[in-house]
Amino acid sequence: MRGSSRVMAEPKSSAHLFAALGDGTRLRLVSRLCDGGPMSISRLTAGSRVTRQAITKHLRVMEDAGLVHSTRRGRERIWRLDRRRLREARRHLDLISKQWDDALGRLKAAVEAD
Amino acid sequence: MRGSSRVMAEPKSSAHLFAALGDGTRLRLVSRLCDGGPMSISRLTAGSRVTRQAITKHLRVMEDAGLVHSTRRGRERIWRLDRRRLREARRHLDLISKQWDDALGRLKAAVEAD
DNA sequence: TCCATAGGCAACCTCCTGGTTGCACATTAA
DNA sequence: TTAATGTGCAACCAGGAGGTTGCCTATGGA
């Protein structure tokens, strides 16, 4: 079998990225940051049913995945989405789809004897 | 604040889906199923460094998320990707991006006094 | 200066997850 | 019929994830 998976060039970081999106609370945070723009932890917590600390942890996870980053402003910390990573996630899914198409193509070409 | 997030119509299932993609081993399985087409657990295990049971568990997780499904053939069980779900994942990311664009638009419109 | 507000840190808890091992059962292939 | 192959099931385990609470520090306003 030749180098089987060109999509897996960066499996670790992609898994990280998807994992960061794989939680309801975090997905909700993404959505709120999308709609409301950059905002502080307190404001993000206000709309949620969990503790501020929980939110903080989620933000940290998302930060590790590169999905968000923060800047300090006075006594608050403002979080904003990082759009590039979101694009990378999309790109990865597109690659998988493409890989799939190619594989299907190869398969059809190979199984002419059907 | 109006109904804030239209993307969150189905946050639970989306989170499920992303979570299913959020693991290196599973991402590798997706890739192999893409490249190699439907195949049995044993064949999937052969290329991996973990136990057959581990692979089985991963497949089950992906099945719960709707990413794959299986059929029995003789004494083996053949797993195949379900492309629709993959498309849904892409769709969701696209929605988020769109939501973002809209929010940016609103923001720019609102902050003319800058 | 003094109090309320916004966060950071750390300890702690529970449950899920990824992984393994051992064993039983079904289906092939000799 | 027998042995090998392909799975399924269940128990078990360590570590990580999500969440909470308590306490301490730093700013901003009155």
Could you explain how this protein is built, in words?
Two copies of one chain form a homodimer. The first copy, chain A, has 114 residues and is α+β, with helices and mostly antiparallel strands. Chain A has a single domain, classed as Arc Repressor Mutant, subunit A. Chain A has helices at residues 11-21, 24-36, 41-46, 52-64, 83-110, and strands spanning 39-40, 68-73, 76-81. The first copy, chain A, has a three-stranded antiparallel sheet with strand order 1-3-2. The first copy, chain A, is elongated and about 65 Å long. In chain A, 32% of the residues are buried. Chain B binds a DNA duplex (30 and 30 nucleotides) through helix 4.
Provide a compact summary of the structure.
Chain A is of the alpha+beta class. Helix content of chain A is 62%, strand content 12%. Chain A is built from five helices and three strands.
